[in-house]
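New to this. Please check this record:
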Amino acid sequence: MLADSYGRVATDLRVSLTDRCNLRCTYCMPAEGLEWLPKPELLTDDELGRLLRVGVTMLGITEVRFTGGEPLLRKGLPGIIAAASALEPRPKTALTTNGIGLARFAPALAEAGLDRVNVSLDTLKPDVFKDLARRDRLSDVLDGLAGAADAGLTPVKVNAVLMRDVNDDEAVDLLRYCLDRGYELRFIEQMPLDAQHGWRRDTMVTADEILDRLGAAFDLRPADDEERGSAPAETFLVDGGPHRVGVIGSVTRPFCGACDRVRLTADGQVRNCLFARDESDLRGPMRDGASDEELAERWRAAVATKLPGHGINDPSFLQPARPMSAIGG
């Protein structure tokens, strides 16, 4: 198992397939983009497949989520998903995407074994989308959501980040849009993971604020009687159900004590947390001839050092050097 010193066991692997993206969202990267990782530094499909096999068959990984950057930009994505889906015991597979191109790729991804998708959608207004993403692609995202549903990648989940005086007036509209189409909406507090290090606590729309805005238009009641465990979202029944909405309060309502996640970057580094300042290299030893057993032991040693929490609310907190686009959500 991938156990840490606080009794948590990592079973959920987040795999970044690329640091590249075809949007330039203001809360993620500057308008000019970033310096991408050189191709020789990226894990090849075969290397990635090997690490997935080690994680699933030797270390107890039961869920694999492919992220980016934008994972749809990774050539060979269907083959990577097929390789993960063929492992025994078969892990659950998911994809987090901005949705651009998803309408075209969804059938092939479903055929490869992908179980479901999360699509980022922060606004329903074309002008706001263009200002936020610095690209005029809202219609492509909406088409991608519909294409995913048509391909059976359900439940289709939508991730939305509200920003003060930008799109924080759209909480109710976003939820209505998703309810009408059978999508599951998750609001996520904006986190300090932008490349510009411009995040400010006083401009973040908190989970409490989000719930207050939704509560003015809908009847929200906790969806589960039990503790949410390792699930990042607190979920609520909307108007008595069956539809639900989730709120992920990563900053104001952290869930670090039950975290079961571990991350693998596109260049083969193990990260225990989005906000970790340390990484453990698997790519180098693998390319130097390490056996599967040696890679598994390195992975175990990396997770054993996981800190108790992300530390955002500690006065000494420092943002990690890598932005979200280079870590994978």
Notes: The two ends are 22 Å apart (CA to CA). The mean pLDDT is 92. The CA atoms of residues 195 and 224 lie 36 Å apart. Residues 12-327 form a domain with the TIM Barrel fold (CATH 3.20.20.70).
